[in-house]
Design goal:
By secondary structure, the protein is α+β, with helices and mostly antiparallel strands. The chain has one domain. The protein contains two helices and three strands. Strands 1-2-3 form a three-stranded antiparallel β-sheet. Strand 2 and strand 3 form a beta hairpin.
């Protein structure tokens, strides 16, 4: 099991772009990550987007708490 209290998340690159993506088959929102260094696009889920959006918090516990609150509010 992962220790959620451990610090030390790596810093995300500033040049990565998070863009709204198309709806998934079931209608759920998706997001697209654009990596200009690799010239690649990656489709991610709403939950993955929430994790990345809160990454600046720096530790898993804070990120998990923020994501839980955000996802709960959308239901």
């Amino acid at each position: 099991m992962m220790d959620l209290s451990s610090p030390g998340l790596p810093t995300l690159r500033d040049d990565l772009e998070l863009l709204p993506g198309p709806r998934a088959r079931g209608g759920a929102p998706t997001w697209t990550v654009y990596d200009p260094v690799r010239s690649r696009y990656f489709r991610i889920s709403q939950m993955a987007f929430e994790l990345l959006r809160n990454w600046h918090m720096g530790d898993w516990k804070a990120i998990a708490d923020a994501c839980s609150a955000t996802i709960w509010m959308r239901r």
